[in-house]
What we know:
This protein is of the alpha/beta class. It contains 12 helices and 9 strands. A 6-stranded parallel β-sheet has the order 3-2-1-4-5-6, sandwiched between helices. A 3-stranded mixed β-sheet has the order 7-8-9. Helix 6 links the parallel strand 8 and strand 9. The protein is globular, with a radius of gyration of 20 Å.
Amino acid sequence: MKPSNTHITFIGLGLMGVPMVNNLLKAGFRVTGFDLNSEVAEKFSGQNNFKFSKSAVEAVSDAAVTILMLPDSSIIDGVIWGNAGQEGISAHLKKGSFLVDMSSASPVSSRANNQKLNEIGINYVDAPVSGGVKKAIDGTLSIIVGGSSQDFEKTHALLEVMGKSITHVGAAGAAHAVKALNNYISAAGLIAVSESLIAAEKFGLDTHVVNKVFNTSTGKNNTTENKVENFMLSGAFNSGFSLALMSKDVQIALKFIEDMGCYSNLAQQCVKTSEEANQSLGKGADHTAVFKYVKSFQ
């Protein structure tokens, strides 16, 4: 896909979507965007290759690639197929075009969407991302890809504009499965680190020193390396990824694990803790604020 002659539609211009679109524009792609929050269009003022559409249906007209970056599968399905009287984009997608779902979504829903889209002549790729807002800004996201080998090859150059590590993990839906499991592991690590640091503090230890030891020992993980000092011990709790989304992600992972008939006790506990923390801390809480929630039980 050459930037000069590839028209991309990007639906979902949130914290991740905006920097991802900026990287596409820097690479020379022509982008049409849509988000329910029309004020986000101001973030692209002065960008000659960007157009903001009034609706998702209008946005996909003549697009070679439609990218979705949406909160969950129910919203994704509503955008594609329509919901509550709102028309979906499926009937307006150009035959032979690609729909690339970069959201975190249900693997089962993704497989179903792949099948239905293929039946109407649309190529489907699931390509969820990992790395957060910082890596979305600098174009170094890790992107997990599900779909046919042919579709992976055709979209690889496009995905490289937004990510540094691009890994094809299998057929459609496989990427959303791997992403859900990755997010579950990450959430479990966050909760474990929160509990451990608070116990260490109660014992009279310096939590900064304790975390330094974690990072030179087998307990090292994404939380100890990137979140403890920057967002948790500092009290900032502003990593840019919400607790509500983390709670949603671990629910997707739990359902997937249970659907596979596998042992899921720890996943169940992660869902319980995430849901309780989300309800306690309220709307807009950052996922790193799980630390504050756990600490409230001292």
